[in-house]
Amino acid sequence: MKRTLILTSALVAIASGAYAQDKEVNLLSWGGAYGNSHVEAYAKPFEAKTGIKVKVADADNPATPIKAQVEAGNVSTDVASVEYADAVRLCDEGLLEPIDASILVPAADGTAASADFIEGAVTDCFVGTDVYSMILAYDDSKFADAKPSGAADFFDTAKFPGKRTMRKGAKFNLEFALMADGVPAAEVYQVLGTPEGVDRAFKKLDSIKKDVIWWEAGAQPPQLLADGEVSMAYAFNGRIFNAAQGEGKPFKIVWDGQIYEMEGWVIPKGAPNLEAAKEFVAFSTSPEPQARAAEFISYGPPRKSAAALVGNINGTDVPMGPNLPTTADNMKAALGSNLDFWVDHDAELNERFNAWLAS
């Protein structure tokens, strides 16, 4: 019997090793500091624990290539990081594999994962990894006296001269424009849901159109600031934070007017390594890896039990907590991106944005 058990255990170990050697996870991320947080907090520890290799590729927006892959019937991605609204849209279109919440790791006290995540962070096809925000950032060396303090200052080129950079698209910019025009955060989507509100947002954008350099990849705004091509940016908070903290750039973040949203994992329909993909999703969305990711880039973990585990900025003795979008002080004038609004209006507003940009 003992010999049988030893042989059985050996066979299980061999089979497990063969599984790890044969399987891999092809991860599509965003690159830059954010992509690095995925490698350090998720991919490397997952490989060490399971022996399953994680191959990481980058895209400006992973939602675009995975949609193309599934529709072409040539899927090479197993797990992708996407914005929340994109995840809902892709799921509604039948382009994603369902993710059963029961595979997710419970909190240390036994709380089920579904109850440990913030509201909306776990859906039929999506598991949240972080809460990020679009924020106003500026080069402190460009403004000796008065400093930008809110959305209205971004649009005031007389008081705060210099070029600006904004993400090329309707989402975030229309909301930011309305806040700059005096609309309270709590009323932004009510206003933007009317033709008059849309006109108002574009009119505000008109006021700085000639002063804007449009960006498409998240790494561009800090580079534009560093190169002196712009004095202000509306950009992902983590990218600006990384440039300021990690590279010593004189960049400051203004939390007033931030628009926050979640990103997370999806599994494309027809993923070639489905079971390994699910195993990766379960591991990487457990509390400890989520807290660890937040130490590399200043995006808040969407698991309640992970928030208390976030330590210092990686490689320093400086606490990360005050730099997260989800910290109470930073949320005082924040706007949550409205998922339903963008699922319903993304196509029409981007069509109008592109026409406006070309005019």
Radius of gyration: 22 Å
The helix/strand order is HEHEHEHHEHEHHHEHEHEHHHEH
The number of distinct helices, counting runs of at least 4 residues, comes to 15
Q: What does the largest sheet look like? A: 9 strands, mixed
The coarse overall form would be globular
End-to-end span in angstroms?
Answer: 81 Å
Strand content: 15-25%
Category by helix and strand content: alpha/beta
Mean pLDDT metric: 92
Helix content: 40-55%
* Unreliable residue runs: 1-19
Total count of strands: 9
List the SSEs and their pairings:
Elements: H1 2-22, E1 24-29, H2 32-50, E2 53-58, H3 63-72, E3 79-83, H4 84-92, H5 113-116, E4 127-139, H6 151-154, E5 164-167, H7 173-180, H8 188-192, H9 195-206, E6 212-215, H10 220-226, E7 232-236, H11 237-247, E8 251-266, H12 274-284, H13 287-296, H14 304-307, E9 335-336, H15 339-358
Parallel strand pairs: 1-2, 1-3, 5-6, 5-7, 8-9
Antiparallel strand pairs: 3-8, 4-7, 4-8
Helix pairs in contact: 2-13, 4-15, 7-9
